[in-house]
Amino acid sequence: MSLHVRSLTVGYGRSTVLSDFSLDVGPGEFVVVAGPSGCGKSTLLRAVAGLVPFAGSITVAGQAVRGPSRDRALVFQDDGLLPWRTAVRNVELPLALQGVPRTQRRARALEWLGRVGLTGFEDYLPRELSGGMRQRVQLARTLAQQPSVVLMDEPFGALDAQTRASMQDLVTEVLDGTTTLFVTHDVDEAVLLGDRVVVLGTGEVERRRDAILAAVKA
Ligand SMILES: Nc1ncnc2c1ncn2[C@@H]1O[C@H](COP(=O)(O)OP(=O)(O)OP(=O)(O)O)[C@@H](O)[C@H]1O
Question: Interface pTM (ipTM) of the complex?
Answer without folding.
Answer: 0.92
